[in-house]
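Attaching the record inline, Q. Sequence:
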Amino acid sequence: MCIRDRYQRRVHGMTELLASILWALLGGAFIAASSSLNLFLNGRITGMSSIFYTLITFDKKEGLIWKFLFMCGMLIPVFVILQTTQTFIKPTYYSPIGFIVGGFLVGIGTKVGNGCTSGHAVCGIPRLAKRSIVATMLFVCLGVGVGSLLGNLGWLRGEFKEYYWGQSYADTFKILSYILSGIAFLACIIVSIITYTGSKTSTEVGDIFLSIFLGSLFGIGLAVSGMCNPYKIMGFLCLNNNWDPSLIFVMISAIGINLVTFHLILKREKPLLQGKFPTIKKEFDPQVIIGPTIFGIGWGISGLCPGPGMLGFFILPQGFVFVISLAIGNITATKLILPMFASKPNQQTASTKEPLTKAQYQDCLLYTSPSPRDQRGSRMPSSA
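Structure, as predicted:
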């Protein structure tokens, strides 16, 4: 009897794992479809960290409208799935400290490293960008390492009841979730109408519905693959006897499909509808090491990255903690850390006692505007 029970449990576990892998492959396919179409039609890279930063800074020059509509499109299928079944998304609780520390580090890391799992892994590797390959290897290894350390030591990990904030909060958040989602959907409608009335071409009108549609595809992919469930992600990041490898297949599916589609798309001279294809930054700098390292540590602590984090604001009881910390991390990186990496050209000052050679003079003109005296040639050396 005991042997039969153990056999049945093992078969049940294998069946669940197989189903999880199949859903992960399907979710990765939806994510690939969304990012490939976004590149093919508009020449856009579907980077969740970039979308999040544009939304919190309200930067109209960086495509605020399409990114907001894309985010609303992501929320629509996730909200519907959450209301109909808890197979893929569960309103789980997590350590607030983990969300605060992890969210802050993810915010800094993704801003310094200029990308997250979507920008570097899903869209960067298929373009054969060496920076993205290095970045992905770093944050995955650091995420698994930190997640395994914390998970096996029991730090910032707990059962559902340990971080449960009480039934009254659970009931309140359920109502709040409806309100927040309703506000987002209403804002989506209002922005769509305003954009529609101000559109001058059919391409601008089509971009409204296209952004919502592509966001919906991406949201479906995140939902059915389990990327919106921190415990599911922690099951992947923590190496132990209960390790869940299914999320590997999300990346395998998304990256594998995009390797083919991106290769074909980038053979074209320009996107089908508008824009132009982005160029690949080839040079390496400290940011490509430091950023993904910080991001990987934060990912291992919190179990969330920017895309699922944005959705967590609406569907996870403690998701707002992560999103606020993520925003603070982004702003901190922009104001305090990124200026450290800004290169400053060496300029020859006017107070130099030694006369400038002709080559030095021309080098100065690359960085400074000539003064009236320079234009008259009074400071131009007569000989090299």
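The longest helix spans residues 2-42. Residues 158-162, 346-353, 364-384 have pLDDT under 50 and may be disordered.

More tomorrow.
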